[in-house]
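Quick one: C-alpha cells for this chain, please?
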Amino acid sequence: MDLFTPIVEEQKQNMIFKTLSHPNLYAEREVLDKWATGFTDRDNKFVQEFQSTFESSFWELYLNAVLNGNNVNVDYSYYAPDFVCEKNGLKFCIEATIANPEQDGLPAYGFDNAHQNFDIDFKEFNRKSIIRIANSIVSKNKKFDKSYKNHSHVIGKPFILGLNSFDRPHAHFIGHRGIIAVLYGIYLNEEKALSQNLNYIPKDKMDFITKENGAEIPLGFFTTPEYENISAVIYNPLATWGKVRALAQINDFNKGCFFTTLHTNEDPDSMIPETNMGIKKEIYMESLIDGTYIFYNPFAKYPLDYELFDQKGIAHITINEAGNLEEFIPRRFLLSRTLISTDGNTLPKK
C-alpha cells in the first residue's frame, strides 16, 4: 500500500500529510510504512483518507502495528469491524475510533502561537476532553447495537474499542484521566493535588459531566451492564507525531529533536513520577507500545482475556466490586512525552 504518493489534490491534503511529504522526513515515512505491514485497504478509500483527514487513518496504522507486535493474526477479508483477530485460538474484534474536535473546534495540530504554551484552564481542558471521549464511545456502542452485533464473525466474541484523542490542541496531555472518568466514573483530581501540595492524586467519584448547555452526560460506562457489549478499550494518548519522531531512525534532519518525559517511578513505593528533561534523540529510547493502556469492562458479556496482550510495557486497568481501580502498571511506564524540534519543520511540537 502506497501511503505517500499523492492521490488527493494539494489543497485538500491534510497539513500533517503535506509536511510528511517533505524529502527530509524519509525516516518518519518509513515508520508509518512499517506500521502498515500486512494492512489491507478493503474499501479503496484508506489512502485517500490518510492524505486528507490523516488522524483516524494514522491511529488505525498504529493499532495494526501493535497487533503485529503482539503476534495477533488479523483477517482482513471482512469489511467491518476494523480488525477481526485471533491469537492462541482466541478470537476477538477491534474497532478503531478517535475523539474528534467539537464543532468549529481547533484540531490537535497546526495551532497558533497562543497554544504553543500549555497555559490553559486545566479543569476546563479535562471537562471538554471527557465529553469528547464519552461521545466517541457512545457512538460506537450504538453502532455495535445497530450493526456489528449482527455479523457472524462478531457474535460471541470480545469486542474492543481502539481509542485515541485528537480533539483539541495538546490533546495528548489528557493522559488517562479522561478515559478513566468516562469508563469508571473516577476523576484523578490533579488540580486538588497541586493546590493542596499532596503527594498523591485524589480519586474523586464522578457520576456525570456537564456540557455547555447544562445537559449532563452520565459517566462510569464500565460500572454497569449498560455497556456490556464493549469488552475493553485499548488507548494510547502518546501515539502521536511524537511517537513517530521517537521511533524514526536518526539522521541529520531529525537529530535536533529533544524529548521531555514523565515515567512512573522505578521505585514501586513512590508516587512521584520520574522527570527527564531535554533528552537528545540520539540517546532517547521509546518503544512502539510505550504509553499503551488496556481498560477492561468487568460487566462485559464476553470478557477479554488478560493474557492476550501480555507484551511488556502495557498497562492493564479495571475496577473491582468495591468500585476501586485495580491498576497493573509497569515500572517506568511512559505517562507523558513532549517533543521540541529544531529542524525547522512545521508540525506540532508534541
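The helical segments are 15-20, 26-35, 46-52, 55-69, 122-146, 177-184, 190-195, 241-247.
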